[in-house]
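Marked as duplicate of an earlier ticket. Keeping the data here for the record.
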Amino acid sequence: MGRVEGKVAFITGAARGQGRSHAVRLAEEGADIIAVDICRNIDSIGYSLSTPEDLDETVRLVEKAGRRIIAEPADVRDAAALRAVLERGVGELGRLDIVVAQAGIAGMKGQPQWQAWSDVIDTNLVGVINAVQAAIPHLGDGSSIVATGSIAALMDVSKVDQPGKDPGGVAYMVAKRLLSQYIHELATHIAPKRIRANVVHPTNCNTDMLQSEPMYRSFRPDLENPTRADAEPAFFVQQAMPVPYVEPGDITDAVLFLASDESRFITGTQLRVDAGGYLKWYDFHI
Protein backbone atom coordinates (compact mmCIF):
# COMPACT_ATOMS: atom_id res chain seq x y z
CA MET A 1 0.00 0.00 0.00
CA GLY A 2 1.03 3.57 -0.65
CA ARG A 3 1.72 6.03 2.14
CA VAL A 4 -1.56 7.89 1.53
CA GLU A 5 -3.54 4.96 0.13
CA GLY A 6 -7.27 5.59 -0.12
CA LYS A 7 -7.05 9.27 0.83
CA VAL A 8 -8.20 12.30 -1.18
CA ALA A 9 -5.98 15.38 -1.46
CA PHE A 10 -7.01 18.92 -2.40
CA ILE A 11 -4.08 20.75 -4.01
CA THR A 12 -4.02 24.38 -5.11
CA GLY A 13 -1.52 25.57 -7.69
CA ALA A 14 -1.44 22.04 -9.10
CA ALA A 15 -0.91 22.78 -12.79
CA ARG A 16 2.88 22.92 -12.73
CA GLY A 17 5.97 23.25 -10.54
CA GLN A 18 5.72 22.19 -6.91
CA GLY A 19 1.95 21.72 -7.09
CA ARG A 20 2.15 19.26 -9.96
CA SER A 21 4.98 17.42 -8.22
CA HIS A 22 2.85 17.07 -5.09
CA ALA A 23 -0.20 15.89 -7.03
CA VAL A 24 1.68 13.24 -8.97
CA ARG A 25 3.61 11.91 -5.98
CA LEU A 26 0.55 11.73 -3.74
CA ALA A 27 -1.24 9.89 -6.55
CA GLU A 28 1.65 7.46 -6.87
CA GLU A 29 1.31 6.86 -3.13
CA GLY A 30 -2.39 6.04 -3.41
CA ALA A 31 -4.34 9.30 -3.16
CA ASP A 32 -7.05 10.63 -5.45
CA ILE A 33 -6.67 14.33 -6.25
CA ILE A 34 -8.80 17.46 -6.39
CA ALA A 35 -6.66 20.01 -8.26
CA VAL A 36 -7.06 23.69 -9.01
CA ASP A 37 -4.90 26.36 -10.60
CA ILE A 38 -5.53 29.81 -11.99
CA CYS A 39 -4.64 28.84 -15.60
CA ARG A 40 -4.25 32.44 -16.72
CA ASN A 41 -1.93 35.38 -16.11
CA ILE A 42 -2.28 38.15 -13.53
CA ASP A 43 -1.55 41.53 -15.10
CA SER A 44 0.68 42.84 -12.30
CA ILE A 45 2.92 39.75 -12.25
CA GLY A 46 5.89 39.90 -14.60
CA TYR A 47 6.12 36.26 -15.64
CA SER A 48 3.68 33.79 -17.19
CA LEU A 49 1.50 31.74 -14.88
CA SER A 50 -0.05 28.34 -15.56
CA THR A 51 -2.17 27.48 -18.58
CA PRO A 52 -5.10 25.09 -19.10
CA GLU A 53 -2.65 22.85 -20.95
CA ASP A 54 -0.45 22.71 -17.84
CA LEU A 55 -3.40 21.53 -15.75
CA ASP A 56 -4.27 18.97 -18.43
CA GLU A 57 -0.76 17.57 -18.12
CA THR A 58 -1.16 17.19 -14.36
CA VAL A 59 -4.39 15.29 -15.02
CA ARG A 60 -2.59 13.01 -17.47
CA LEU A 61 0.20 12.25 -15.02
CA VAL A 62 -2.14 11.55 -12.11
CA GLU A 63 -4.25 9.25 -14.25
CA LYS A 64 -1.08 7.56 -15.49
CA ALA A 65 -0.38 6.78 -11.83
CA GLY A 66 -3.73 5.01 -11.71
CA ARG A 67 -5.65 7.49 -9.57
CA ARG A 68 -8.72 9.63 -10.10
CA ILE A 69 -8.49 13.40 -10.38
CA ILE A 70 -10.97 16.26 -10.47
CA ALA A 71 -9.18 19.27 -11.95
CA GLU A 72 -10.65 22.69 -12.67
CA PRO A 73 -9.31 26.21 -13.24
CA ALA A 74 -9.94 28.32 -10.13
CA ASP A 75 -8.35 31.41 -8.63
CA VAL A 76 -7.56 30.97 -4.93
CA ARG A 77 -8.52 34.61 -4.42
CA ASP A 78 -12.10 33.54 -5.18
CA ALA A 79 -13.38 31.71 -2.09
CA ALA A 80 -16.70 30.80 -3.71
CA ALA A 81 -14.93 29.16 -6.65
CA LEU A 82 -12.80 27.03 -4.32
CA ARG A 83 -15.85 25.93 -2.34
CA ALA A 84 -17.64 24.97 -5.56
CA VAL A 85 -14.73 22.88 -6.84
CA LEU A 86 -14.37 21.14 -3.49
CA GLU A 87 -18.08 20.35 -3.29
CA ARG A 88 -17.93 18.74 -6.72
CA GLY A 89 -14.70 16.92 -5.95
CA VAL A 90 -15.81 15.55 -2.59
CA GLY A 91 -19.15 14.62 -4.11
CA GLU A 92 -17.43 12.50 -6.74
CA LEU A 93 -14.48 11.15 -4.75
CA GLY A 94 -16.37 10.70 -1.51
CA ARG A 95 -14.11 12.31 1.09
CA LEU A 96 -11.28 14.77 1.83
CA ASP A 97 -8.23 13.95 3.95
CA ILE A 98 -5.38 16.20 2.82
CA VAL A 99 -5.09 19.87 1.92
CA VAL A 100 -1.96 21.17 0.22
CA ALA A 101 -2.29 24.95 -0.03
CA GLN A 102 0.46 25.42 -2.58
CA ALA A 103 -0.68 28.19 -4.94
CA GLY A 104 1.58 31.22 -4.86
CA ILE A 105 3.03 34.00 -6.98
CA ALA A 106 6.13 36.17 -6.75
CA GLY A 107 5.55 39.89 -7.22
CA MET A 108 9.15 41.02 -7.62
CA LYS A 109 9.32 43.87 -10.17
CA GLY A 110 5.53 43.65 -10.60
CA GLN A 111 3.72 46.67 -12.03
CA PRO A 112 1.90 48.70 -10.91
CA GLN A 113 3.85 48.14 -7.72
CA TRP A 114 0.98 48.43 -5.27
CA GLN A 115 -1.27 46.26 -7.42
CA ALA A 116 1.49 43.65 -7.33
CA TRP A 117 1.50 44.01 -3.54
CA SER A 118 -2.25 43.38 -3.37
CA ASP A 119 -2.20 40.46 -5.80
CA VAL A 120 0.59 38.73 -3.88
CA ILE A 121 -1.10 39.18 -0.50
CA ASP A 122 -4.46 38.07 -1.90
CA THR A 123 -2.94 34.95 -3.50
CA ASN A 124 -0.24 33.86 -1.07
CA LEU A 125 -2.04 34.67 2.20
CA VAL A 126 -5.76 35.11 1.59
CA GLY A 127 -5.69 32.31 -0.98
CA VAL A 128 -4.33 29.89 1.61
CA ILE A 129 -7.01 30.95 4.09
CA ASN A 130 -9.68 30.53 1.41
CA ALA A 131 -8.48 27.02 0.58
CA VAL A 132 -8.34 25.96 4.23
CA GLN A 133 -11.71 27.50 5.07
CA ALA A 134 -13.31 25.71 2.12
CA ALA A 135 -11.76 22.40 3.15
CA ILE A 136 -12.29 22.34 6.92
CA PRO A 137 -15.99 21.33 6.82
CA HIS A 138 -14.95 18.20 4.90
CA LEU A 139 -12.03 17.19 7.11
CA GLY A 140 -12.19 14.64 9.91
CA ASP A 141 -10.06 12.71 12.34
CA GLY A 142 -6.54 12.18 11.01
CA SER A 143 -6.69 14.81 8.28
CA SER A 144 -3.68 16.93 7.41
CA ILE A 145 -3.28 20.50 6.14
CA VAL A 146 0.05 21.48 4.60
CA ALA A 147 0.73 25.07 3.51
CA THR A 148 3.65 26.21 1.40
CA GLY A 149 5.57 28.98 3.09
CA SER A 150 9.03 30.15 2.09
CA ILE A 151 12.40 30.55 3.70
CA ALA A 152 11.82 34.22 2.85
CA ALA A 153 9.35 34.27 5.73
CA LEU A 154 12.15 33.35 8.14
CA MET A 155 14.89 35.59 6.79
CA ASP A 156 16.34 38.23 9.06
CA VAL A 157 16.36 41.04 6.52
CA SER A 158 18.49 43.18 8.81
CA LYS A 159 21.35 40.76 8.16
CA VAL A 160 20.76 39.82 4.54
CA ASP A 161 20.51 41.94 1.42
CA GLN A 162 17.20 40.45 0.38
CA PRO A 163 16.48 40.13 -3.35
CA GLY A 164 13.28 41.85 -4.42
CA LYS A 165 12.85 44.77 -2.03
CA ASP A 166 10.19 46.47 -4.19
CA PRO A 167 6.55 46.29 -2.96
CA GLY A 168 5.70 43.10 -4.84
CA GLY A 169 8.78 41.38 -3.49
CA VAL A 170 8.25 42.55 0.08
CA ALA A 171 4.61 41.45 -0.14
CA TYR A 172 5.85 37.92 -0.82
CA MET A 173 7.82 37.89 2.44
CA VAL A 174 4.98 39.50 4.42
CA ALA A 175 2.39 37.05 3.06
CA LYS A 176 4.53 34.02 3.86
CA ARG A 177 5.22 35.26 7.40
CA LEU A 178 1.54 35.86 8.08
CA LEU A 179 0.67 32.51 6.50
CA SER A 180 3.05 30.86 8.95
CA GLN A 181 1.43 32.57 11.92
CA TYR A 182 -2.03 31.69 10.61
CA ILE A 183 -1.19 27.99 10.35
CA HIS A 184 0.34 28.05 13.85
CA GLU A 185 -2.85 29.48 15.33
CA LEU A 186 -5.04 27.21 13.21
CA ALA A 187 -3.14 24.11 14.34
CA THR A 188 -3.80 25.02 17.97
CA HIS A 189 -7.55 25.23 17.44
CA ILE A 190 -8.04 22.13 15.27
CA ALA A 191 -5.76 19.82 17.28
CA PRO A 192 -8.65 18.68 19.54
CA LYS A 193 -10.36 17.42 16.35
CA ARG A 194 -7.21 15.43 15.52
CA ILE A 195 -6.67 17.52 12.39
CA ARG A 196 -3.08 18.62 11.84
CA ALA A 197 -1.68 21.73 10.15
CA ASN A 198 1.95 22.41 9.23
CA VAL A 199 4.01 24.68 6.99
CA VAL A 200 6.80 23.64 4.64
CA HIS A 201 9.33 26.39 3.92
CA PRO A 202 11.24 25.90 0.66
CA THR A 203 14.33 27.83 -0.24
CA ASN A 204 14.92 28.67 -3.91
CA CYS A 205 13.09 25.96 -5.87
CA ASN A 206 13.72 25.18 -9.51
CA THR A 207 10.35 26.22 -10.92
CA ASP A 208 8.99 28.78 -13.38
CA MET A 209 8.74 31.28 -10.52
CA LEU A 210 12.48 31.18 -9.86
CA GLN A 211 13.49 30.83 -13.49
CA SER A 212 11.88 34.08 -14.57
CA GLU A 213 13.05 37.47 -15.74
CA PRO A 214 11.75 39.38 -12.67
CA MET A 215 13.57 36.97 -10.36
CA TYR A 216 16.79 37.26 -12.35
CA ARG A 217 16.56 41.05 -12.05
CA SER A 218 15.94 40.77 -8.30
CA PHE A 219 19.05 38.66 -7.75
CA ARG A 220 21.18 40.72 -10.15
CA PRO A 221 20.03 44.34 -9.76
CA ASP A 222 23.41 45.45 -11.06
CA LEU A 223 22.51 44.26 -14.57
CA GLU A 224 19.83 45.71 -16.83
CA ASN A 225 18.80 42.45 -18.52
CA PRO A 226 20.32 39.54 -16.60
CA THR A 227 20.02 36.02 -17.98
CA ARG A 228 19.71 32.76 -16.09
CA ALA A 229 23.46 32.34 -16.46
CA ASP A 230 23.96 35.76 -14.87
CA ALA A 231 21.54 35.17 -12.00
CA GLU A 232 22.24 31.58 -11.07
CA PRO A 233 25.55 32.25 -9.27
CA ALA A 234 23.66 34.71 -7.05
CA PHE A 235 21.06 32.06 -6.14
CA PHE A 236 23.65 30.47 -3.83
CA VAL A 237 23.27 33.35 -1.35
CA GLN A 238 20.04 31.83 -0.04
CA GLN A 239 21.52 28.48 1.06
CA ALA A 240 24.28 27.31 3.41
CA MET A 241 24.83 24.18 1.36
CA PRO A 242 26.62 24.90 -1.94
CA VAL A 243 23.54 24.62 -4.17
CA PRO A 244 21.64 27.32 -6.11
CA TYR A 245 18.23 25.76 -5.49
CA VAL A 246 16.36 22.60 -4.57
CA GLU A 247 14.02 20.67 -6.85
CA PRO A 248 10.20 20.42 -6.55
CA GLY A 249 10.55 16.77 -5.60
CA ASP A 250 12.58 17.75 -2.55
CA ILE A 251 9.61 19.76 -1.29
CA THR A 252 7.22 16.97 -2.22
CA ASP A 253 9.11 14.56 0.04
CA ALA A 254 8.31 16.82 3.00
CA VAL A 255 4.69 17.35 1.91
CA LEU A 256 4.14 13.60 1.54
CA PHE A 257 5.52 12.96 5.03
CA LEU A 258 3.27 15.60 6.58
CA ALA A 259 0.26 14.36 4.61
CA SER A 260 0.79 10.76 5.66
CA ASP A 261 0.02 8.99 8.93
CA GLU A 262 3.77 8.82 9.55
CA SER A 263 3.45 12.35 10.96
CA ARG A 264 0.20 11.73 12.85
CA PHE A 265 1.46 13.51 15.98
CA ILE A 266 3.23 16.38 14.20
CA THR A 267 1.29 19.63 14.04
CA GLY A 268 2.07 23.34 14.17
CA THR A 269 5.52 22.69 12.69
CA GLN A 270 7.47 25.10 10.48
CA LEU A 271 9.49 22.59 8.44
CA ARG A 272 12.40 24.09 6.54
CA VAL A 273 13.58 22.50 3.30
CA ASP A 274 16.19 25.16 2.82
CA ALA A 275 19.61 23.55 2.28
CA GLY A 276 20.63 25.20 5.55
CA GLY A 277 19.60 28.71 4.58
CA TYR A 278 18.15 29.47 8.01
CA LEU A 279 21.53 28.68 9.56
CA LYS A 280 23.10 31.61 7.75
CA TRP A 281 20.98 34.15 9.61
CA TYR A 282 20.33 32.85 13.12
CA ASP A 283 22.27 31.60 16.09
CA PHE A 284 20.98 28.54 17.86
CA HIS A 285 17.91 29.15 19.97
CA ILE A 286 15.00 27.12 21.29
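See parent ticket for discussion. The chain has a mean pLDDT of 95.
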